[in-house]
Amino acid sequence: MEAAPEFKNESQEKLALLATLQGQEIESLRRRLSEQSGEECHQEVILVEQLKAQTAHIAPTLFKKKPKIKKPQKGHRPTEQTRLEHVEEVFLLDAPDQMCPSCGGDLEEWEGQFEGADLIDGVEKIYLVKKVKRQKYRCNGKDCNHIETPLGPDKVITGGRYSVNFTVDVASEKYTNHMPLEGQTRAMKRLGLKVESQTLWECAACPSVA
């Protein structure tokens, strides 16, 4: 004998009981049909069909699984690099670019003002965090508030955190040396860099290095 199903609430128990009772009633009517004939039998057949129609929608409702609601995927934040050496690299405007494009005045350094970003770089398998500081310039022309900032280091992925050297090295290890990305993450971890294989995949799959 099959074990009785477990129900999460009272409503399901009532529906199960109703389905059982109606099933028993249908079986009783079927037995009576075998003993009757003619018009009475025809009426019993109609009654049985009506009960079957009423019961049909109950059983699927009892055991229908609720659809799973997929949680929205959250974007990953930059991993804090506490074991890497941190160095600063300052980018300045070239002399020809130190002229205000708005009024033609001279651009002078805006002391203490930079646009900063972290850039993960690899130098001979030594990973470090370069503190990229792009010196800001402001025009000294009368009634001109123009501000100029140098471009900074090249990146394969615009707005990315990893340098060209790092990205090319990941792609080279994967496609030339056939080193899996998971293996690369383990090797980088031993040198202090914490990075996910998905991040390396984004680097290696970039059209600029493929």
Write a structural description:
The chain is elongated, with a radius of gyration of 37 Å. A hairpin with a 2-residue loop joins β2 and β3. Strands 1, 2, 3 and 4 form a 4-stranded mixed β-sheet that branches. α1 runs antiparallel to α2 and α5 crosses α6. The protein folds into 3 domains: 54 residues; 72 residues, no CATH class; 49 residues. It is α+β, with helices and mostly antiparallel strands.
Instruction: Report the β-strand fraction as a percent range.
Output: 15-25%
End-to-end separation in angstroms reads 63 Å
In total, the number of strands is: 4
Class by SSE composition:
alpha+beta
Helix content: 25-40%
Main sheet? 4 strands, mixed
Averaged pLDDT: 79
Short description:
This protein has 210 residues and is α+β, with helices and mostly antiparallel strands. It is built from six helices and four strands. Strands 1, 2, 3 and 4 form a four-stranded mixed beta sheet that branches.
